[in-house]
Amino acid sequence: MTNPSGHSLAGNSVSENYEGEFGCTLMDLRKLMELRSADAVTQISTHYGGVQDICARLKTSPVEGLSGNPTDLEKRRLVFGQNVIPPKKPKTFLELVWEALQDVTLIILEIAAIISLVLSFYRPPGGDNEMCGQASSGPDEEEEAETGWIEGAAILTSVIIVVLVTAFNDWSKEKQFRGLQSRIELEQKFCIIRNGQLIQLPVAEIVVGDIAQIKYGDLLPADGILIQGNDLKIDESSLTGESDHVKKSLDKDPMLLSGTHVMEGSGRMVVTAVGINSQTGIIFTLLGASEEDEEENKKKAKTQDGVALEIQPLNSQEGIDIEEREKKVNKMPKKEKSVLQGKLTRLAVQIGKAGLIMSALTVVILILYFVIDNFVIQGRAWLPECTPVYIQYFVKFFIIGVTVLVVAVPEGLPLAVTISLAYSVKKMMKDNNLVRHLDACETMGNATAICSDKTGTLTMNRMTVVQAYVGNTHYRQIPSPDVFPPKVLDLIVNGISINSAYTSKILPSEKEGGLPRQVGNKTECALLGFVTDLKQDYQAVRNEMPEEKLFKVYTFNSVRKSMSTIIRKPEGGFRMFSKGASEIMLRKCNRILNKEGETIPFKSKDRDDMVHNVIEPMANEGLRTICIAYRDFDDTEPMWDNENEILTELTCIAVVGIEDPVRPEVPDAINKCKRAGITVRMVTGDNVNTARAIATKCGILTPGDDFLCLEGKEFNRLIRNEKGEVEQEKLDKIWPKLRVLARSSPTDKHTLVKGIIDSTVGEQRQVVAVTGDGTNDGPALKKADVGFAMGIAGTDVAKEASDIILTDDNFTSIVKAVMWGRNVYDSISKFLQFQLTVNVVAVIVAFTGACITQDSPLKAVQMLWVNLIMDTFASLALATEPPTDSLLRRRPYGRNKPLISRTMMKNILGHAVYQLTVVFFLVFAGERLFDIDSGRKAPLHSPPSQHYTIVFNTFVLMQLFNEINSRKIHGEKNVFAGIYHNAIFCSVVLGTFFCQIFIVEFGGKPFSCTSLTLEQWLWCVFIGIGELLWGQVISAIPTKSLKFLKEAGHGADKEEITKDAEGMEEIDLAEMELRRGQILWFRGLNRIQTQIEVINTFQTGASFKGVLKRQNMSQHLDVKLVPSSYSTAVAPVKSPPSTSSAVTAPPMGNQSGQSVP
Hints:
calmodulin-binding
């Protein structure tokens, strides 16, 4: 492959000098990594003399790894590059300014302001003709006419401020997302062997020549060649589009590529290409190679759930099939915007329509009134020299009309949403929630069900063996090693030490007197701890039998539910050690060791007795039971691929009971969930009795409840018909009562999640959150409304499919996420309540004022101040309210709950009535009250009047005090509760107040203000404080008694969305409205689109592999293996709002990412 970007080749002289030190160049390795299977094997053996020789050329040891010497590492980075793919350049501030300027309403305002400016400088010859009507009157006539340009200039200035504020917000938002992105990338570490030590290294620090330990669930961070592997299967669909897993072995296909997923097995590889020289990197470089193609790439790259690229690095027939498949996939309806985005867009459209009508009406009425008054009633003739004067009047009317529109549309809304989400995301980091997709944060607030794993999430994932059954004796505590015959002890120690991943270890505690550290798979660590408790050394056994000497390994997966390792015996023949879920393993045993260590027959009756007397009592105490067994092959070597033949006729050595204590904080968290109307279900691979015992300890089950605990088999029997298809009706009878699903496979988990989401039982659709850590939890995590991956125990694949990563693997963090999600929703509602009151009042005042007095009491610049500055500040103040526990004391809102409840509608209309009464009273009777000159019917270019300054000042102060009222949306009386906890709110309110004083006293002509006396100021403040008192009156009126109130801002209708969404990039409800030709344009569209773009960018770019990874879960549909009820879904799937319409991936591998169930 040619290299598109110059800088990735080791072209500079320094690297050329060093390149000679290694036995192969960067280009040699790149060419080698482009080969596959047989070609690669041939090339490695003929040209390089085998993998060991490649290691020698790269000056690395296949066992010890690199020395970790800083000079050596730096040299390797110079020659072979760093393991970093440079991110796309962010938009510059000027680009963002240009984007903000595209706003239609702003453009109209700019044009109007420019016309106004031009006309103010143009002095027509007959301009002062008495016949043209009044231009200005009074002694300062000339001077005032000279300053006619100020209004136009002020409008332009305020437009510039708005644009800069918008651009700055977008810029800081993008900066925040980039910070978050780099945090996600830093989170990803990989197991590397350096100096014989296994260490966790950030992916960016990996260099060519490193020896990497790969295991089930890893996402490969660089290209490499396999040195040693056990049963290794890789999912290469992200690069090739083929969904079948590729078997990797030294003799058939040793090439491992970055960005692919390890689906089974383990092994070691030598890293041969990193960063932009790896296969993923080459693709990225090709993408960024030509700027002109970028737009095209964007279009190609967007698929339903993020960015997914189909790129075929090999010249093969597959490329054509992929294009076909991509066409099919692209026809599917895209994932809808989050529920909140949908509701807001709809609301903005509705308000936009109303504003457009009102502003058009205002302009028409003003022009008609002027024309009729001048030319009909006063009977003037239209004189040519008067034309500029009339045009000036018309421009003034037009500006008033546009101002009404500006005020009508709540363009502060998208800003409030972003601020609220960004603020929440930042704070959620502290609560151990790393949010990968912004909208997940808000969806969590609507969650009605949580399907949680047991191990590590509800329990501490600190496993210890506490009981054992060996030689027909049940030991309630760990016995001393003397009780066992040497042969039995030897079998236990070897059976555990050899038959577990060598990456699982027990290390001494970091703190003095602390518990030993468990590294690797926790169940295996418990077993190794058992060996240590028996005063034996597992490491000595492993040193005698290093990983290279293991003959064959059947690694753990969710189908086998066991792991087996085969070794050669010194005296000839083979021995296989197995371990796994006890009831499954015992079915495969036909012999058992007795007290003396001799094998005796083990019949089905003995098995039933053992299950009844040993396994069930252990499980009822919440212990996970594991059986350890072995089998000798002395005669002939069997067919190793025939697994079913090999995993039979085993001899049982022991059954152990492993305790994983419940996290102390979990019962309280589950109790909070119940109070908040959220159902918690446990989905686990464990025995049903163990699961039931843990569920009772957690509080998921309480004695006397009528709830179901099912095993996966039973669950499937109840929900499938004769053909084996899942029937929604049958599932609907089960899930409402189901609380524990045990011995479940990843497919069961996906079926349950899909079933609950698709269910129509109950008044509203369920919003489901799911936790997962295993590779095969991917489909369930993607299907769920919110997928939580485990930050510690989770595999890279699970993290990639998730929306939020729990950095501490703790269930209580999910409850925090619910709290933040609800808080986002409430913050938006608070802002809406405030914003809409301002809008309703300002529009009515401008409209009626214009119609009655031919001039809006609130001038264009004043309106812009009220609208834009107060909106921006208010969105900041109301969107950053911290969450309180009271949020968890109510039920979820649900997907269809309108944004504006009837209580909020009562508040909006109630406050609007107060404000309108005050404003109209001041406009029509204010001059008599304050004994000042009237500002009504002032001629063009007349100076600002005290009368209208009081109107403006009172209006702003009423908004300011109403902002405090808006802090509560559920009719609470105390609007000051917790106000001191929000410093931003306090500073915004005070800041706005001081700005207002400055504007009134020093704003002068640009703001159409003149300074007020202290008495007038006190009256304005007094009327403003009246808002707080009036708020108490409104909250005292019960909402139920006001039957006429309607809700607004409903969610979209499911059917309607899917119909319109066919073939669209994303379901944008505003665009649908536009398509129907019902509206020409409106203020908020541009901002809301920007918001969505930012969120999309965030969703798609969550890590540099994001481009290549996400589609293998959602896009390559392996229809054959999927249970047939949804295997037909190749045609566009009708998806409920806000859920991915991807068809599930085939069942594969383990649900909990553990080596033992």
